[in-house]
Amino acid sequence: MQNVEKIIEILKKTVPEHPYRSHNPFHILIATIISQRTKDEVTYTVANKLFAKFPRPKDLKNASEEEIAKLIYPAGFYRQKAKKIKEVARIIDEEYEGKVPGDIDELLKLPGVGRKTANIVLARGFGKKAIAVDVHVHRISNRLGWVHTRTPEETERELMKIIPKKYWGEINSLLVMFGRTICRPVKPKCEICPIKEYCEYYRSHANSQSS
Fold it and tell me: Would you say residue 4 has pLDDT above 90?
């Protein structure tokens, strides 16, 4: 598809970097589990608190659910997540010799891990070619007109056809930050958007405003 590479290059120059910079696969995995239905600023704060006390799978495996829950509060569903986190840590420590698997099929076997989480771990933790589709990536890809899909799974498949592989690992962070700062779910800041001339949503929105 025309302009995909051009749009990505523009965003790379204009969108702020993702604040979570860790490349530790275990930390990325646990932080992504915490992030579900939780604001980003809360996720990063509580994840850092958790890893300061329990940095390795073995440490987290031996922690109590109550202690984990206390450290990740006020993340959404923190008690349920504490249970999942402890179990994930146990499985990684006991079944994978303390190392997060770098294979999507193995990652998907872990409790609380779906394709988005698995692909984030592969891309950020292992530097592999994977497209992680969360709500931002799904929304923005459809707004731009890159895809016309109903589910994140469909979006992932379609994006793999049109985005050059060299961008796969970074597209999630790029669109997440673009979605937080400009292409927001409600009242997107189209007037200051650096890629509005390429955007299907903006063209239809501008036409409806002028008519």
Answer: yes
- Using a 10 angstrom Cβ sphere, with 0-12 exposed, 13-18 middle and 19 or more buried, the burial of residue 172 is buried
Averaged pLDDT for residues 160-166: 97
- 8 A C-beta contact, residue 92 and residue 111: no
pLDDT tens digits, residue range 27-37?
A: 999 999 999 98
Q: What is the DSSP letter of 64?
A: -
Token match 């109550």: residue? 66
Q: Where are the domains of the chain?
A: 4-16+132-206, 25-126
Q: If one looks up domain 25-126 in CATH, what number appears?
A: 1.10.340.30
CATH code for the structural domain at 4-16+132-206 = 1.10.1670.10
Residue burial 121-157, b: 16+ Cβ < 10 Å; e: rest: bbbbbbeeebbbbbebbbbbbbbbbbbebeebeebbe
What does each C-alpha distance from 149 to 157, 158, 163, 187 come to in angstroms? 10, 8, 16, 21
- Is this structure's pTM higher than 0.90? yes
